[in-house]
């Protein structure tokens, strides 16, 4: 007498806790700007650098305590038991950061009490000590390839697609190397080209982030990126630098269409794409994921979408928030959710399944922000455009020209502002009821691989169940 076959599951026990956590979250979506309106040049080419630095200082400086709190919480609430290498790496980072703070505070006090000649030897000694510790902190390679493990029943996905992971700021990179990268390789079934940032202690890292947000300073990571990019917090600065230079060198077309960028808690408030001068042009696919309480996203992607509208942040934004009735913790450390790349994967793809996480929820379309972005494009950029005879076009003239061009495509870049608001409203209304995994390239890649892996892992007796579930 044969026993009943239990329903097939894929790590059901491991995913139950993650699914329960996802149930307390909500998801909202801010659509991307229309093609004709999203292309522009970076703010660094249109505004003085000093004014950009002064405006950004008022954003980055107040966010520093929240960033410190998030980094500490991420280090405490990591997965598994910390090993000696992880403790050593975190201790070195904390020591370098403490020395830098000590130098800044002591130099300000000693400068008033000691002459410069007496202060210089002490300052050189402290700088040399920090340099030695920073070298020890960065002795591991920052650019390498993580090979997907196919020996445990896994398989490789489409080899024509190349994946790039750009790491972000963290107290230790050991978790990224030991757990996050193997998880990404298993999630997408691909080898991962990895670029991890150099670390110099929190004060200096924050200063570098501040300048790189406004000066587009290239790094070893940004000069080597190409094709498909996953960028975490400050790694989005490298991705934005690549986008601005790549789009300046290449016209919009099939080459740029193959570029896909996904950011997680992006620190950049600006990411540009080519100018929209034609109807049938292809642009890079850019998608941003951000947790509402993530301090890196608050000074980056949220700032670019909601406040700093004179710049351009290409791509759509998925905002992950707590449900209205969900309990929240108050204190020095943020709630148990982690803002590391591994933490984002826990929220988006628990058990490697996009349907089980927050992406399985219905998105609330942020129509107010979407319309506000479209209006800023029309009011600032398009109203200042000049007609063919050098005269500025009024809104009445814009409407007349738009009516004359409505039968064909033509070169209607002048009209993008006049069209954008009504088009945005129609598009946002059509998106109502959309789930997070729909029209989402990253979720599509994970979903297809998750379903196929479930079918491969089940034995022959469970094939009928797989077919019944539509895997």
From TrEMBL:
It comes from the Eukaryota. This is Uu.00g121110.m01.CDS01.
């Amino acid at each position: 007498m044969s026993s009943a076959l239990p329903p097939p599951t894929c790590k059901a026990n491991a995913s139950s806790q993650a699914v329960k956590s996802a149930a307390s979250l909500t998801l909202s979506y801010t659509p991307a700007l229309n093609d004709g309106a999203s292309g522009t040049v970076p703010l660094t080419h249109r505004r003085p650098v000093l004014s950009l630095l002064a405006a950004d200082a008022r954003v980055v400086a107040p966010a520093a305590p929240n960033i410190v709190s998030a980094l500490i919480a991420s280090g405490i609430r990591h997965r598994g038991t910390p090993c000696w290498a992880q403790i050593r790496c975190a201790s070195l980072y904390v020591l370098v950061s403490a020395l830098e703070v000590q130098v800044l505070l002591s130099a300000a006090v000693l400068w008033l009490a000691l002459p410069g000649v007496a202060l210089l030897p002490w300052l050189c000694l402290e700088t040399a000590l920090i340099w030695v510790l920073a070298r020890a902190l960065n002795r591991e390679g920052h650019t390498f390839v993580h090979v997907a493990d196919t020996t445990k029943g896994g398989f490789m996905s489409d080899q024509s697609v190349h994946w790039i992971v750009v790491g972000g700021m963290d107290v230790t990179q050991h978790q990224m190397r030991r757990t996050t990268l193997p998880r990404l390789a298993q999630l997408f079934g691909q080898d991962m080209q990895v670029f991890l940032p150099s670390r110099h202690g929190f004060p200096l890292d924050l200063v570098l982030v501040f300048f790189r947000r406004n000066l587009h300073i290239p790094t070893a990571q940004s000069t080597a990126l190409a094709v498909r990019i996953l960028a975490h917090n400050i790694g989005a600065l490298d991705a934005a630098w690549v986008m601005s230079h790549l789009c300046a060198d290449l016209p919009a077309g099939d080459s740029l269409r193959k570029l896909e960028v996904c950011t997680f808690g992006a620190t950049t408030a600006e990411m540009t794409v080519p100018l929209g001068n034609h109807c049938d042009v292809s642009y890079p696919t850019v998608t941003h994921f951000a947790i509402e309480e993530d301090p890196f996203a608050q000074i980056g992607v949220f700032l670019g979408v909601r406040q700093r509208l004179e710049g351009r942040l290409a791509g759509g934004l998925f905002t992950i928030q707590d449900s209205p009735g969900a309990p929240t913790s108050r204190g020095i450390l943020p709630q148990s959710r982690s803002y590391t790349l591994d933490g984002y994967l826990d929220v988006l793809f628990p058990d490697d399944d996009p349907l089980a996480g927050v992406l399985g929820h219905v998105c609330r379309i942020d129509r107010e922000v979407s319309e506000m972005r479209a209006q800023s494009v029309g009011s600032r950029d398009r109203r200042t455009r000049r007609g063919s005879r050098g005269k500025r076009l009024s809104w009445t003239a814009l409407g007349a020209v738009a009516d004359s061009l409505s039968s064909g495509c033509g070169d209607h870049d002048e009209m993008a502002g006049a069209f954008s608001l009504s088009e945005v409203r129609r598009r946002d209304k059509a998106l109502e009821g959309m789930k997070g995994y729909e029209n989402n390239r990253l979720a599509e890649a994970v979903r297809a691989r998750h379903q196929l892996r479930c079918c491969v892992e089940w034995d022959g007796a469970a094939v009928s169940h797989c077919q019944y579930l539509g895997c």
